[in-house]
Amino acid sequence: MDVRVPTMPYDVAFLSASAWGSHDVSHVCDATRRGVFADASLRARSAFLIGGDWMHASQVEKNEETTLQKEVLLEVEDLRIYFELGRQKVAKAVDGVSFTIHKGETVALVGESGSGKSITSLSIMRLVPMPPGKLVSGSVKLNDREILTLPEKKMREVRGNEIGMIFQEPMTSLDPVFTIGNQIMESLLHHQGLKRKEAKNKAIDLLKLVGIANAEKVVDEYPHQLSGGMRQRVMIAIAMSNNPKLLIADEPTTALDVTVQAQILKLMLKMKEEFNSSILLITHDMGVVAETADRVLVMYGGQIVEEAAVKELFLNPKHPYTKALLKTMPSLDQNVDRLPSIPGSVPPAHSFPQGCRFAERCEFAFDQCKQQLPELINVTDAHKARCHLYSGFGGGSIV
Amino acid sequence: MLYIIRRLVLFIVTVALVSIITFGVFQILPGDPVKTMLGTEADEVQIESLRKELGLDRPLHEQYMDWVQGLFTGDLGNSIRFSMPVSDLLMDRLPVTLSVASLALVIVLFVALPLGIFVAKRQNKISDVLLSSATQLGMAIPSFWLGMILIIYIGMNFDFFKINGYVPWSESIAGALSTLVLPALTIAIPQIAVKFRYVRTSILEQMQLDYVRTIRSKGLPEKIVMYKHILKNSMIPILTIFGLITAEVVAGTIIVEQVFALPGVGQLLITSISYRDFPLVQGIVMYITVTVVFINFVVDILYSVIDPRIRLR
């Protein structure tokens, strides 16, 4: 059936998607509950969420092809990072994660707190404190260069230079006792070897670029004199100061006001275009995913459980976890006393079950799920899911 | 600016209060200086005339105002025991005490700070145990004992050190150091043992904070992370501690001057108390407290230099 819903102007969807209530962090991917959806059916709601552009399978696949043709920027393979908690206790925070990011692409890494998404992003920067963390296996290649084994000195040339990073808490992510200018400049001075005067001018330019009015004044101000949104803009300026090829954003909008969230996301996308870079966006907010991402990785229990292009994922989710996440979104026309949620909670990283890590909470679970950990399999060409429901079939069929 | 003015007002108020308390305490203390001077044989007439001579028969507030005026003009009256101006006595002794105290402070600063950073960088169980034992030991050692140990094992074995008396800086710098280093060490060692742990703690606290991760994500070398960012941020709690040390160091000089026979204010204070030489005691106490209050004032000002957020308050 080729039903086409009229295409909605991007900005309308943008506003509606970003104007969703507050951001309490609960076990269920809370952001998904905040949708403003007119239609009750999941498919239609998802369609609305991603901009109303209803696409059918052939279009999705066409999109995939163009993505595949693009050059690979970052390639993460079988990344495992464990934390030793005690003699026999090992938390498998990241347990065999593989994914790629192409040039110019925005990839969202989605998951509940504790799913290992932040550790994944930090380990690309090699900023996971070790010990207690331990790299068990894995490879991270940036432009075909392995960076996990680089000597620390070489790695420092990658950080802030080839990969920029922004964090969740703009309030505490800047050093309170140095001026904004100083903190932007030190990156420029270190990586580009500019003179102080040049660096300061560049810092002012960067501040203007990230949309800070009276940049000449702000450059000499301290972080406490700025609002949260402005600080996050400063963080983006710092991250982009050396034209990085990859921007990692670890929940960049979680701590911000809803209105500011939209601005910051818009700015990140603008900067991506400006500097011709790619974005790895870590978030638990499905709304943010819909607004920004090209492709989505869903993480659960330290593993990627589903990977697909954003529209494909919203319209045609495969993994029961992803489905459950999308189902938890409320809609305006339905009066519900309790918001839907996924029963149970994420198993702790030090005692994962032998089988599928989602089996306990999964409504489709059968015997095999409890016994054997499923592999991440291709359901269709560019759609992967880690679920036994698809292992027997050639792929594509929905249960 | 407003911050500095407020601190200044606070400083003045504190000093005023200190002067009232210092003056008041010696009015309440038992023991009559006049009787101490004249001995038990003296008769009423003699006592009364001396009292008049010293101005002790006038109303208290007048005596206080006179004394405060003296504080500003440097005329603190005459010492009862030495029969010479208190200010002259202080001027003689103050350089000795200030030298010992500042040398001790410098030693504490230059040892405790790097040591604290060093142990913060490599924290593990064994060094933690060693360090807390060192701290316990440092707190438990009485300074007079430490002083004597230093005299016996260092002072007697190395010709450089003099274990007795004082050589003014103006005469010979090496000479002054030879008399001051051991007393300063005596004060400094227990202080270092306790204070480097504060340094360690505040650096470890800072290392946990988000902004450190940001700096690392910029690809800056550890040297900049530690010595530019973490150190400046940890200076706020560390400064507080060093403000407190000043008071302890000044108090420490009193005992140490006895052990090393240094002609400092501490020694003068002890003798003057036993003689009920009130004008002298008052003068000494006043100067010591003003020094300590002043140093804390300086610390407050330094806070605002380091931390821009404090300037707002």
From TrEMBL, chain B:
Domain ABC transmembrane type-1 per the UniProt entry, residue ranges: 94-303
GO molecular function: dipeptide transmembrane transporter activity
Subcellular location, principal: membrane
Pfam annotation, one family: BPD_transp_1_N
Chaperone as UniProt keyword: no
Domain of life per record: Bacteria
Regions crossing the membrane: 7-29, 94-117, 129-153, 173-194, 236-256, 284-306
InterPro entries reported for this sequence: BPD_transp_1_N, MetI-like, MetI-like_sf
Mode of membrane association: Multi-pass membrane protein
Subcellular location: Cell membrane
A GO term from the CC aspect: plasma membrane
Keywords per UniProt: Cell membrane, Membrane, Transmembrane, Transmembrane helix, Transport
Family that this chain belongs to: Belongs to the binding-protein-dependent transport system permease family.
Protein name (database record): ABC transporter permease
